[in-house]
Design brief:
The chain is mainly β. The protein is built from one helix and 25 strands. The chain has one helix at 5-12; strands spanning 18-19, 36-39, 46-52, 55-59, 70-75, 81-85, 92-96, 102-104, 116-122, 126-132, 142-148, 155-156, 164-169, 176-180, 187-191, 204-205, 223-230, 236-242, 248-252, 261-263, 275-278, 284-289, 305-310, 317-318, 328-329. Strands 1-4-3-2-25 form a five-stranded antiparallel β-sheet, with no helix packed on it.
């Protein structure tokens, strides 16, 4: 097997590159953009970008390290990466540009900070994210906000007493899909027009068995939906956890689950579930499974592993090692 000089150099140069396990699975087709991982392989949660098959480098790392956590990365259309870090005290949104610089996008007074989470692209020049009210206790309900990438034009989208979280914006910058417990269970909603004078007034529930906009009675569904992401055709991939079970991935159209669901993963091949889908733009879905059982493998118990699967539900490929004494995630949206 021949190895190019540039490939060999990239594997040995001392720029803090980390190599994924050689048993991470077969070679895979290149994605439109380098994939992102969240991993605790270095001790604390950090974000890594795969620069070639099996080789990753830290993204947005702070000089001097530290015990802080960098999580919830989302690739932006210009190649930058929005993520969450508590490096300055409380969780806030940061931007790692394609050129490698890092700057903070959200700032709160130290006496009354907010907790920011789950930034995601909303068109070309904005992000949408969730945050608590200033000074609210950790774990308080969140609402959705939009923000330009230069840190200006902070705009609140929702004001519901329930918890609104895990947003994702459409490529045209108009719509936002998100998770809310406003009907009692975790359901997926869509705001069709984020720029409307009262954007929240148009919010529709997509998880219900009936027409779009009709949420099932609280406590009767037995399922919890999370991690919605828009696909290129406007449909939505998300994870659904049945009562007492593990989550699997599904796809629904903009008309909602009542118009039909397509299951992408199943418990037979993924007994530890599939969650936090990410769409890299190459016709596949990245997702995380876990916590795994030990499977007879030392160091694997309770770990999380990243997989890739085609949108059609075939070509399942494991991307990260199931034998490693650490966990890898796609975004690490939750601490559960």
């Amino acid at each position: 097997m021949s190895v190019t000089l540039s490939s060999a150099i990239s594997r040995i140069r001392p720029v803090c590159l980390l190599v994924l396990s050689a048993c991470a699975g077969p070679a895979r087709a290149p994605s439109a953009q380098p994939i992102l991982l969240v991993s605790d392989r270095g001790g604390a949660l950090r974000i890594y970008e795969e620069i070639e098959a099996g080789v990753v480098r830290p993204v947005g790392a702070r000089d001097g390290g530290g015990a802080h956590a960098d999580t919830m990365p989302a690739r932006l259309p210009d190649g930058g990466i929005a993520f969450v870090s508590d490096r300055d005290g409380n969780p806030e949104i940061y931007l790692a540009t394609a050129g490698g610089s890092v700057r903070r996008l959200t700032t709160d007074p130290p006496a009354s900070p907010s907790d920011d989470s789950a930034p995601a692209p909303l068109g070309d020049g904005r992000i949408v994210f969730a945050r608590t009210d200033p000074g609210a206790p950790r774990g308080a309900p969140r609402d959705l906000y939009t923000l330009r990438l230069d840190g200006g034009d902070l705009r609140r989208l929702t004001r519901h007493p329930g918890d609104d979280s895990e947003p994702w914006g459409s490529a045209d910058g108009r719509s936002v899909v998100f998770v809310s417990d406003r009907a009692g269970d975790s359901r997926i909603y869509v705001i069709p027009d984020a720029d409307a004078a009262d954007a929240e007034a148009g919010a529709l529930c997509l998880s219900g068995p009936g027409p779009s906009g009709s949420a099932p009675p609280a406590g009767t569904g037995g399922t919890a939906d999370h991690g919605p992401v828009f696909l290129a055709d406007g449909s939505i991939v998300f994870s659904r956890r049945p009562a007492g079970g593990v989550p699997q991935l599904y796809v629904m159209g903009r008309a909602g689950a009542g118009a039909g669901l397509r299951q992408v993963t199943d418990a037979l091949t993924l007994p530890f579930g599939a969650a936090e889908p990410v769409v890299p733009g190459d016709g596949t879905i990245l997702f995380v499974t876990g916590p795994t059982g030990d499977g007879g493998m030392r160091g694997a118990a309770g770990r999380y592993i990243v997989y890739r699967i085609a949108l059609g539900g075939f070509n399942l490929t494991r991307l990260t090692s199931r034998r490693a004494p650490y966990s890898d995630f796609t975004r690490r949206l939750s601490e559960d």
